């Protein structure tokens, strides 16, 4: 059986930065807290926990005086930094550079819109850590839309500045943009900033091609990964024999009946070492006495 791991799958550079900072801090300090899951992958979080990483909630931040807390790639609103300064909490900022630039852009866009009586609209998932960080830059004075139906909350008689969560769909962003321009009283007063990270969005067309090359696809990702859910659907649409697992223990022999080739891929929150472990287990089972030794 031919088994191939997608070379373009795995951690995006923002996640690599956060994981690297966590590992460096743990080697120096022994114990570090992460404000929320450092990455939406249970197996990777467990690996880091063994090194001394502790995941805490925002409510638990109140008891962290004198401790070291890592800000994950999704970023945080200014209120989190202010709270840490006031309570003697040392922060390690691992905000993704793309997200950090977007946070600054949201602030400047808000100032421009405020000056002309306009509004800031952000395409994103409500409650998502990155979106919470973005709206927090302007004390919540931004409209978050998830679908075209949400545009009913936008006042199209006023100027508009449209931005997006970095991991949103390019197709959805374009749909929102077109709808805004069609409905705006004055389309020239609609400012659009395409802030979607191409390292993430470009994986969709690549995975479409990758998934078609194999008899079966195993997509490795954490249950909490929003990016993983979207990319897995991309695989499933391109290859109906696509399956998703968190780790190698979830593999099922019937998935590979009659297969001569299997592709392994994953989300931006999936470590390469975990995809390799899944590939190794499939290879071992394919080489077993009955070919189904899972």
From TrEMBL:
Signal peptide residues on this chain, from the entry's feature table: none
Active site: 130 (proton donor)
Record-given protein name: 4-hydroxy-3-methylbut-2-enyl diphosphate reductase
Species this protein is from: Alistipes ihumii AP11
EC primary class: oxidoreductase
GO MF annotations in UniProt: 4-hydroxy-3-methylbut-2-enyl diphosphate reductase activity
Residues reported to bind isopentenyl diphosphate: 40, 74, 128, 225-227, 269
Cofactor stoichiometry and binding remark: Binds 1 [4Fe-4S] cluster per subunit.
């Amino acid at each position: 059986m031919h088994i191939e791991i997608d070379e373009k799958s795995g951690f995006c550079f923002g996640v690599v930065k956060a994981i690297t900072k966590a590992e460096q801090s743990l080697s120096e300090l022994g114990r570090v807290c992460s404000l929320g899951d450092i990455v939406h992958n249970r197996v990777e979080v467990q690996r880091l926990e063994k090194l001394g990483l502790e995941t805490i909630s925002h409510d638990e931040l109140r008891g962290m005086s004198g401790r070291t807390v890592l800000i994950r790639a999704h970023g945080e609103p200014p209120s989190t930094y202010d709270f840490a300064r006031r309570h003697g909490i040392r922060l390690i900022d691992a905000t993704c550079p793309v997200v950090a630039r977007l946070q600054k852009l949201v602030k400047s866009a808000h100032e421009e819109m405020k000056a002309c009586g306009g509004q800031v609209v952000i395409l994103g998932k409500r409650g998502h850590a990155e979106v919470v960080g973005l709206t927090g830059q302007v004390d919540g004075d931004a409209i978050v839309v998830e679908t075209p139906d949400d545009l009913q909350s936008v006042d199209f008689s006023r100027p508009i500045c449209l931005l997006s969560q970095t991991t949103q769909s390019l197709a959805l962003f374009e749909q929102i943009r077109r709808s805004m321009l069609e409905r705006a009283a004055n389309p020239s007063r609609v400012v659009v900033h395409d802030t979607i990270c191409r390292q993430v969005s470009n994986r969709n067309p690549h995975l479409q091609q990758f998934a078609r090359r194999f008899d079966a696809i195993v997509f490795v990702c954490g249950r909490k990964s929003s990016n993983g859910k979207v990319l897995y659907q991309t695989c499933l649409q391109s290859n109906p024999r696509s399956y998703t697992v968190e780790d190698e223990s979830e593999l099922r022999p019937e998935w590979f009946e009659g297969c001569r080739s299997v592709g392994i891929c994953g989300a931006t929150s999936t470590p390469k070492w975990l995809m390799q472990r899944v590939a190794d287990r499939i290879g071992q089972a394919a080489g077993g006495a009955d070919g189904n030794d899972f």
